[in-house]
């Protein structure tokens, strides 16, 4: 039992004892019954009429007992038995009154303590009830969370089954590798050190021959386009990004030109990783605004079409100066002969394994595509080819090994459907599909070093891989 309850029990027990004592003793003390009191060995009988009488009793607001006592007539001598009895009675009543007062104070104090404890217990009861309600709510919430977790895990069961199957295959592979290693160890012991060196030399010779063979794979015919690989999402719907196909393997700078007009800012990134993270290394403010999105970086310089003109600009990143500029004779500009999507894409500059090219249209060729090979230093036209394909009906186009490939890249089901070979001056219709994932390609250029197509697809910078068909000529071929 807690201390407050012990105190309450003690108070109630004490009050019961006093009540019992008062019921038995007080009547005799105040003369409500006939009592024999021994005084000086003499018995004196006192009747109720002669002694003290309780006239009335009540309880005050604080719980204390109040008695009204009728005193007897004062006609007795002070030395008689009734006087002594009165004095004794007064003393006992005073003692009892003091005891009751002390008891009352203790009772009031304990009662206040009990009230305080009752308030605290009610508060605790409310808290326990709240905790119980919260516990039910939390259990319901946790149960729902566990159920959702189980629903998420259920689809993993077939995956786990597959993992178990894969684990068996891996065990088989490990056993086969162990057996193969044993066989190879035996073969190595049989061959000996001298023969091993001879085999190693044969491998080195084979690697050299493969490298020589790869050098002959500089050109080929486009067979397949796969992808795209989304590198980054940035900029407006239209723009261009590129790397330098003639840069060294350690030089992986990326250039970024947002929008097709009203802009002169070129952003440079030291690597593809910096481009993805947005860690810009340098900014170039060109002397002229560009037109379209068909720019190209070639051998450390930027080639672009000057806004509202058919002038080609060569700008050096190293010196920050214009190295050359030349008008492309008869070339249409400012949306006279753009690609299907518009955007001032009249003049398309591009590069491949052979060199620098310009693709455009003229009135003299009835708006059909003209291909011109350019001198990278002076921008002179070295040679031109007139095709019969209308420029305004074409999507983006690109050059690979001297062949122009024309797409309908503005459509969802994009494909390469026309090609023109500058080597044979002939064309053919093709059917090479590729995925226009973001529905609007405004830039598509081939990079000979990466063997990939760089594209700007509706604010997404993406890469396509290309597959080329190569014909390898041997020394015996004439």
UniProtKB/TrEMBL annotation:
Disulfide topology: 219-401
GO biological process, one term: signal transduction
Record keyword Glycoprotein present: yes
Residue ranges of coiled coil: 79-141, 170-216
Main location: secreted
One Pfam family linked to the record: Noelin-1
Spans through the membrane: none
Protein location: Secreted; Synapse
Any GO CC annotation of this UniProt entry: extracellular space
Domain Olfactomedin-like: 218-470
Keyword terms of this UniProt record: Coiled coil, Disulfide bond, Glycoprotein, Secreted, Signal, Synapse
Record bears the keyword Glycoprotein: yes
Protein name (Swiss-Prot/TrEMBL): NOE3 protein
Organism, as annotated: Certhia familiaris
Lineage of origin: Eukaryota, Metazoa, Chordata, Craniata, Vertebrata
Gene name as annotated: Olfm3
């Amino acid at each position: 039992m807690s201390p407050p309850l012990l105190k309450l029990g003690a108070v109630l027990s004490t009050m019961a004892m006093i009540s019992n004592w008062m019921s038995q003793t007080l009547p005799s003390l105040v003369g409500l019954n006939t009592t024999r009191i021994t005084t000086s060995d003499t018995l004196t009988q006192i009747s109720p009429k002669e002694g003290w009488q309780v006239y009335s009793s009540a309880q005050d607001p604080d719980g204390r007992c109040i008695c009204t006592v009728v005193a007897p007539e004062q006609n007795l001598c002070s030395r008689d038995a009734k006087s002594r009895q009165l004095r004794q009675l007064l003393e006992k009543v005073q003692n009892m009154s003091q005891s009751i007062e002390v008891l009352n104070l203790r009772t009031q104090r304990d009662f206040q303590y009990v009230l305080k404890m009752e308030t605290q217990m009610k508060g605790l009861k409310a808290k326990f009830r709240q905790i119980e309600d919260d516990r039910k709510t939390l259990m319901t919430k946790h149960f729902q969370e566990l159920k959702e977790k189980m629903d998420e895990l259920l689809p993993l069961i077939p995956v786990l089954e597959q993992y178990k199957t894969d684990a068996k295959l891996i065990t088989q592979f490990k056993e086969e590798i162990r057996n193969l290693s044993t066989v190879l160890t035996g073969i190595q012991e049989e061959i000996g050190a001298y023969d091993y060196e001879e085999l190693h030399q044969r491998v080195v010779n084979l690697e050299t021959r493969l490298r020589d063979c790869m050098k002959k794979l500089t050109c080929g015919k486009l067979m397949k386009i796969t992808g795209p690989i989304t590198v980054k999402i940035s900029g407006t719907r239209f723009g261009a990004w590129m790397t330098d196909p003639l840069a060294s393997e350690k030089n992986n700078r990326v250039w970024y030109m947002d929008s097709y007009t009203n802009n002169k800012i070129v952003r440079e990134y030291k690597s593809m990783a910096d481009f993805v993270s947005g860690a810009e290394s340098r900014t170039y403010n060109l002397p002229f605004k560009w037109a379209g999105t068909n720019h190209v970086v070639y051998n450390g310089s930027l080639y672009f079409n000057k806004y509202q003109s058919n002038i080609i600009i060569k700008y050096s990143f190293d010196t920050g100066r214009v190295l050359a500029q030349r008008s492309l004779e008869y070339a249409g500009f400012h949306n006279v002969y753009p690609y299907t999507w518009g955007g001032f894409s009249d003049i398309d500059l591009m590069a491949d394994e052979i060199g620098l090219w310009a693709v455009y249209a003229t009135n003299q060729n009835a708006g059909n595509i003209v291909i011109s090979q350019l001198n990278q230093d002076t921008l002179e036209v070295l040679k031109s080819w007139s095709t019969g394909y209308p420029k305004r009906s074409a999507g983006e186009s690109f050059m690979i090994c001297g062949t122009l490939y024309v797409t309908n890249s503005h459509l969802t089901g994009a494909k390469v459907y026309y090609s023109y070979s500058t080597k044979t001056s002939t064309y053919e219709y093709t059917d090479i599909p590729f995925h226009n994932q973001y529905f609007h390609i405004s830039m598509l250029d081939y990079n000979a070093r990466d063997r990939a197509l760089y594209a700007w697809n509706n604010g997404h910078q993406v890469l396509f891989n290309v597959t080329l068909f190569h014909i390898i000529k041997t020394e015996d071929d004439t």
